[in-house]
Each structure stands twice: as structure tokens, then as C-alpha cells.
Amino acid sequence: MVQVQDLKNSPLAENPVIGQMISNNHEQLVFCNDNETGLKAIVAIHNTVLGPSLGGTRMWAYKNEMEAITDALRLSRGMTYKSSLAGLNLGGGKAVIIGDSKTQKSEALMRRFGKFINSLSGKYITAEDVGINTKDMEYIKMETDFVTGLPVNMGGSGDPSPVTAYGVYLSMKASVKEQSGNDSLAGKKVVVQGIGNVGESLVEYLVKDGAKVYINDINEERLKAVAKATGAEVIPADKVYDMDMDIYAPCALGATVNTDTLNRLKCSIICGSANNQLADENVHGNMVIEKGILYAPDFVVNAGGIINVYYELEGYNRERALSHAEKIYQTTLNIFKVSKEQNIPTYMAANRLAEKRIADIGKVKLGF
Ligand code: NAD
């Protein structure tokens, strides 16, 4: 049998694509090319031990093919970990279409892409991501049923944000419980950065629970409307990282947990929906510990979205999706436990739990 170490040392590993696949154990990479429609797309399948790989399609004006491949490989791996920790029978995959989403789309291109997805026979299931809209999904769906996360008028589950927000809220309660032994958010000062689809719904949960909520967004109109509807207090952008607060909830952008912000943040918990919150996992995963901050790993906290689309695959039922999302509370606590026991950052504990589930289920001989 070929050992991983042998592969890592083989000349093949010097190839930048195969090298990346070997070092992160990716299963498959598919390059889809069609000169007629101008389609250049990449489907990366990281791991299918738990089930078919699932992850959205992103359309982006990558500088070159290598940049697109690297992104697809990185994102598909992230999906494996997210679905594993969420307790779903799904693997990790991701597709990227190379091109400008504003000028380079056509019905033909999207349908050709749908045909490529279909040719994978369900090993990869796609959904919407950056640069892809409902109209594109409609075209993709014309060519394949391996699609999820569709709007209600197309027979799908609609906006997953309320389920995502519920998961963030539960993770936040688990984080407070970890620190104080009691999971009430009453009286806690929470700064929610970004009150879009997830942020707004999160604010509603927090206010209901008696938290003192501060909000910031670049969309002034939305800020006013959410403040009026919920009683949350609007704060200017330059106060977000300097306020006296208990919890910082990033719900807008990635990489907001970095050296600059960590030197300013006075919170004791970071828990929000944004993807890739740590600018550099190795550096800032440790720095939060030095600062005495409990970081709830983003891909555990925001798993409500993938949980929601998973339930669409088997005939959608929001109650079931919400009930599954409740597990995020206990998963968050388990991660803190492993982090303490093994003296490792919380993001690393989350990775280990995800890997353990894949290894355990991989040993089960499924079927008859
Ligand atoms: P959204 O686009 O509806 O909301 C994002 C909000 O952030 C907008 O109101 C925008 O104006 C605001 N914003 C942008 N830049 C900002 C800045 N510099 N400062 C303050 N506010 C800023 O997105 P969403 O669906 O609410 O998702 C929020 C985050 O959660 C994103 O990072 C997304 O990738 C992640 N996420 C969302 C889901 C989901 O179910 N929607 C699932 C998993 C992860």
C-alpha cells in the first residue's frame, strides 16, 4: 500500500496542484472546459466518507487558473470540516467558475456548467455562493438535480439565514456558559458587526434574551430600521473594536480577528457568523488565548446554513432543520472541552473533532 509519506516525498508532490491535493488529502479535482460557451470551471471534491460532497459555486474573476484551483481546494476542505462537525452525512466540495460575474454570464454557460455537475452523478451537489444568483441557479437546475439551497418559488428551502442566526445565538449561549456556568445572555453587552440577513435575525434573538445589543453596518438605512425595530443601539464603525463589551459578533466580513483588532478588543467572547474570522489561524488562534478571549470557531457557529440546505435534499422541513441546528450548542461546548483537555486553540479542537468523526464513520462498513 502506498503510504501518505511516500506520496508527499514523490516527484508528483512537486506539481503545485497535485502537491496541494496530496498534502490535504483531496479526493478529486475536475476541470470543466467548454470553448463554445467560454466556461472554465473547477470542481474540487475533498472528502466523501460521510456522504456526497456539498458546497456552493462561486464565480470570481481569478487572475489565473492556479488561483482558482487553490481557492476551490481550500474551500472544499473547509466544507468537509463544517459538515462533519454539524453531524451531517455530507462530504466537502466546492465549485468555482472563472470569470466576471457581472459581464461573463449567459444561460448557455450556466447550463453547460449544470451538465458538468450532472456528469458527476451526485458525488458533488452544488448551491449558491458569491457571484451566483437565483437566475443562475435556475439555469443550472435545468441540467441537473444535484442542486440545493434553492428559493421557495423554485421548490427549495429559501433563505437559510434565520437557521444560521439561531445557531450563532446557541453558540453564543454555550460560550457564556463555558465562562460563567450559566448560559443567560441577560445584561451581556454584545456588538453585532453587520446586520444583514443573519445579523438582523441574531439581534432579535439577543434582544429577546435580555442582552444589551450594539449594532454597526455600512448600510445606514438598514441600521436605522433594525435599531427602530429591535431597540438595539447604533455605534459608529470606529467604535466597533474599542467598546467596552462582553461579546464581539462578526457577521459581515472575514479576517476581522487580526493583530490590530485583538490589541483593541475588550471582549471576553468572539462568536459570529462571518466565514474565516481569524486572519491567520496559526497566529490569531493562539493570540485570542493570550488575550483571555474565548473564540467560538466560525465554521461551527455558522453551520445552520449548511444544515438548512441538507434538509432540503430530503424534502424540506424547517422544524427539522432548526431542531438539528440545536446541536450546535453542545458541539460548541465539546470543542471548548477538547481545547482545554488538549491545551490547543479552539479552532484546532474543532478540526480534531471533525477529523475524528470522519475517521470513525470511515471504519463503519456501510451497507449490507
Ligand atoms: P448579508 O450580505 O445579508 O449581510 C452582510 C452585512 O454586512 C450587510 O448588511 C453589509 O452592509 C454589512 N457590511 C459589509 N461590510 C461591512 C463593514 N465593513 N462593516 C460593517 N458592516 C458591513 O450577509 P449574511 O447572509 O447576513 O451573512 C453574514 C456573514 O455570515 C457573511 O460573512 C456570510 O458569508 C456568513 N454566513 C452566512 C450564512 C447564511 O446563512 N446567510 C451562512 C454561513 C455563513
Describe what this molecule looks like in 3D.
The chain contains 15 helices and twelve strands. Strands 1, 2, 3, 4, 5 and 6 form a six-stranded mixed sheet that branches. Strands 9-8-7-10-11-12 form a six-stranded parallel sheet, with helices on both faces. The two termini are 26 Å apart. Strand 1 and strand 2 form a beta hairpin. By secondary structure, the protein is α/β, with parallel strands linked by helices. It binds nicotinamide-adenine-dinucleotide.
CATH superfamily annotation of the largest domain? NAD(P)-binding Rossmann-like Domain
- What would the average pLDDT be, to the nearest integer? 96
* Number of beta strands: 12
Distance between the termini: 26 Å
Query: Can you summarize the main beta sheet?
Result: 6 strands, mixed
Task: Give descriptors for this structure.
12 strands; binds nicotinamide-adenine-dinucleotide; alpha/beta; six-stranded parallel beta sheet; globular; 15 helices; 368 residues; single chain
How do the strands and helices of this protein lay out in sequence?
Elements lengths: L3 H6 L6 H9 L3 E7 L4 E9 L5 E2 L2 E4 L4 H21 L5 E8 L8 H13 L4 E2 L8 H10 L17 H20 L8 E5 L3 H12 L3 E5 L3 H11 L2 E2 L12 E4 L8 H4 L6 E2 L10 H10 L3 E2 L2 H4 L2 H10 L4 H8 L1 H16 L3 H18 L5
Helix pairs in contact: 2-3, 3-15, 4-5, 6-7, 6-12, 6-13, 6-14, 12-13, 14-15
The protein binds nicotinamide-adenine-dinucleotide (NAD).
